[in-house]
Amino acid sequence: MFGSLFSGGVVKKALDKGLIEINVHDLRDFAESKHKQVDDRPFGGGQGMVLKPEPIFSAVKKIQGGQDIPVYLLSPQGKKFDHRIAEDLAQVARLILICGRYEGVDERVMEHLATEEISVGDFVLTGGEPAAWIIVEAVSRFVPRVVGKIESVRQESFIEGLYDFPHYTRPRDFRGMTVPNVLFSGDHKKIQDWRRRKALEKTWRLRPDMIEQKKLSPEDKKILEEIRKGRKTK
User: Fold this and answer.
1) So what's the pLDDT on residue 234?
2) Domains delineated in the chain
3) Nearest Cα to Cα of residue 160 among 210, 120, 119, 204
């Protein structure tokens, strides 16, 4: 699965350039039972299987090799992953991601081994592998030279706590759908103001909670008030 996920795109280029290194470890290699079993039925009854603690503890111990390497358990109960966490993790020399499995992971892994739990969203996946790929992709973008200009990464959507403004390219008129005239005005101040308004408008419409969490400037508050009153954006 991981061989396919990391075989293209930004991550592949970063691997080829030696900017990042990814090592995948199979828990079965650390299982103690004859049949290399890594999960078992939950105590107390219930549906599904739970990942056993022994192979996870053994795997992490070997990978750490006596070093203090942070360990993150991927699960639906964890802290919501966002660009700030991605940027923070990019500053860490090495980190370990434990891909949980449905129905769960023995609680002792979180209590005594993991540095923290991370969730990529309020939904359940069969396994943590897709979540790990998302985290690797997002974190890699903050590693120097992985993306051409780090400034472009820092200016992307969510960095300011807002959705991105609309983007357009050629043709100017596509099947009667035209590009806003302001983008051809040559007036950079007008373009900047239009983009800011559109970013605020889209965020307020789709994610009002993000607006509530953001410290707005007096100008942003004025724009938002106009948007709330239903005034059309020029």
Assistant:
1) 46
2) 2-140 (3.40.1280.10), 173-228 (1.10.1270.20)
3) 210
